[in-house]
Amino acid sequence: MKKKYKCILFDLDHTLWDYEANSREALSELYVLFNLKERGILIEERFLQAFYVINNELWDLYDRGLLHRDIIRNERFHRILLTLGVDDYPMSLKISDEYLQHSPKKKNLIHGCRETLEYLLPKYPMVIVTNGFDEIQSTKLSSSGIAPYFKSVVTSARAGHKKPAKEIFEFALHENNCSASEAIMIGDNLLTDIAGAKNALVDTVFFNPSKIEHQSNVDYEISSLPELMNFL
Q1: N or C terminus: which one in the chain shows less Cβ crowding within 10 Å?
Q2: Structural fold of domain 7-17+109-230
Q3: Per-residue pLDDT in tens (0 to 9) along the chain, 232 residues
Q4: What CATH number is given for 19-105 in this structure?
Q5: Residue 119 and residue 82: Cα distance in Å, rounded?
Q6: Can you give the residue ranges of every domain in the chain?
């Protein structure tokens, strides 16, 4: 029997907005722009892989409350360059600025995103709940063309709390006149999205396109976004 929900909460990065594809496009452009091959990074793919490893590590620390967000802005590319044998902090800051300007303007969405949002739009108010930076997440939504699908965007800065704290979910629910039992959260991160929503007593959908094995308690699990149409 289907449960009747009155509000859908969505994570943005990796769930709707294709972070990997968009980052790859931006990083490839920066590799050329900053002539990194001449700086000794002979293989572009090494630059891309270093970004994914270090970026994931830093965001995981941030999500766990062990790192201030300014470290991501100011240290991420320095650490990436150092692992590749290039010690140039001023250049790393320039790369960071360019990345933050250009990556959010990329338009790639997770497969099935738009058709799924089109299906859900007449049925539910939808809300983005994200730990991402305010201005960057706003740019991602507008550039990719999915901003009109959402009633509101709740960022950690605006709510004063970041996922997995229950307060950011409670903020989103209160703002949209929805109780925890009437909402469902859809996201790809077992810590921030799933455990966070559970902290707020909100039902969950784990978006697991890679079909990773886990022991987390989830209400629903999907490997593609259109699967949402099977039960919402």
Answers
A1: N
A2: Rossmann fold (3.40.50)
A3: 467 899 999 999 999 999 999 999 999 999 999 999 999 999 999 999 999 999 999 999 998 889 988 999 999 999 999 999 999 999 999 999 999 999 999 999 999 999 999 999 999 999 999 998 888 999 999 999 999 999 999 999 999 999 999 999 999 999 999 999 999 999 999 999 999 999 999 999 999 999 999 999 999 999 999 999 999 9
A4: 1.10.150.240
A5: 46
A6: 7-17+109-230, 19-105
